[in-house]
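seq:
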Amino acid sequence: MSRRSVFSLLLILFGVLLACGLLEGAVRVLGMDPPRGEPAFFWQDDERFGWFHAPGAEGWYFNPAGEYNAYARVNAAGLIDKDYPETKPDGVYRILVLGDSFTEGLRIPMDAAFHSVVERELRPESGKKVEVINGGVAGWGTDQQLLFYREVGRNYRPDLVLVAFFPANDVMNNTISLESENFGGVRKPYFLLEDGELVLHNYPVGSESQPERSSDSPAEEPEPAPTPAPPLEFTRPALGHSALYRYLVPRLRVAAPGLALKLARWGLIPRGSETSNAAQGPDYIPIAYGVYHDPLTPEWESGWQTTAAILAELKKQVEQDGARLAVVILPAQEQVVPGVWEMTLRRFPAMQSASWDLEQPNRRLAEILHDLGVPALDLLPVFRAADGASLFFPIDRHWNEQGHELAGEALVEWLGGE
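struct:
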């Protein structure tokens, strides 16, 4: 190799290193450096609900991409909220919100969640003070929310129970055959419709054996043989000190999953969703997207029937306690942000030959609630009318502070007219 060639290569290498150094500095100076270590953990096993918050748990919650880093605390009752006495004070209008991670609100400051917005801004005509209690827990379906209301929520004597229903996964959560396939096992109590009646199973958790898999679910496969360590895995501890590396890796997984898969196989980045997706084979379609399939499969139709029965039972119990039930329907990122669904179809090619309807679950839920006589607010049109991309964390896919503020303000306007 000539001296000129060597000099050119060194010059190119110097330019690359200089650019990386400048970008590294920019990420740090601009505060884009994702947090290191592990986020706080707020949950524990619970024989009543499968899992619940650990009273007193607190800390900073963040994702590897550094999209958020919010402090949260679990109160003595196991709720991510300030403390409320079970005995409702005189002159108080009390709302209990039931939901999953969107309601739980760990990704934003506690006082910025949509239910906190409602508590601050709602002014009932009665002139009463408003208290809004956050009963949200990540991963819960409507089935666990019903059990929570029976065991805990009703003790707060709410005037209104507001279910924050997330169609993108709540129907799956309520359908144990889908839920167990998604989780790889049964971790919770669940309801089945037996002769038209809602029957509770696996309560307390662990009291029943796991249900059999559906006929179209893959049989359990043996543990794969251990694979040799990727050749460049030894470089990761050093790379992990780079803010630029920690910033780019989560974004690479979303923008270029094919490249991320190759880098993971070399050991330059940890294995992630792109690796597990590839291991499923070319025909893999994530279970949760079945809620958008047109037409629905019999398993999903059964899930909707179970969901309707759970909502009917919750309405019955709430009204027996002298309160009212209402539902707010929460939109998912793929329903609101242009291009997200198209990216999903590219990531999972097997989906491209099927028919999908992103508004189908909202229509189906609205029909159920109408038949039950339960008032509902669908936030999908509200979010679509706004700048949808500004309302979600792009990688995490939950609402950011702007999304929660918009949802809270829409609820205040709706509840004010109830």
